[in-house]
Amino acid sequence: MMKQLLGSVLGSEGAKVMAINLTVAVLVPVAVGLVAPLVRPAIRGTLKSGIRICEKVRETTAELGEFVDDLVAEVQEELRQERMMSSGLVNTETRERTNHDGGRSQ
Questions:
Q1: Can you give the three-state secondary structure of the chain, one letter per residue?
Q2: Using one digit for the tens of pLDDT, what is the confidence trace for 53-87?
């Protein structure tokens, strides 16, 4: 009777699936243990490269932000001077001094 029960369990599809699952459960940790030391340096190198790229992007973005801020400030100053000139609030001496020092007043 035990022999028949064992034969019916091992001969069924369920037994095949169970055998496959058991094999995978045993082999995957072994494979990971063997492969991890080989893959770890490559993963670390990839992460280092990614961090370096991220830092460079942040640096470049900050520089671009400073450039845009400076440009906006220059344009705003030009607009302010144009408005003052068009309204007659700036005398000739102020205009000449502004033109000679590159738009910076002292």
A1: CHHHHHHHHHHCHHHHHHHHHHHHHHHHHHHHHHHHHHHHHHHHHHHHHHHHHHHHHHHHHHHHHHHHHHHHHHHHHHHHHHHHHHCCCCCHHHHHHHHHCCCCCC
A2: 999 999 999 999 999 999 999 999 999 999 988 88
CA 66, 67, 70, 73: dihedral to nearest 10 degrees? -100
Residue 84 exposed, middle or buried by CB count within 10 Å (0-12, 13-18, 19+): middle
Q: What distances in angstroms separate CA 105 from CA 18, 36, 40, 68, 74, one per listed residue?
A: 85, 65, 60, 21, 12
With a threshold of 0.70, does the pTM exceed it?
Answer: no
Tokens for 37, please give them.
């030391």
All structural domains of the chain with their residue ranges: 2-100
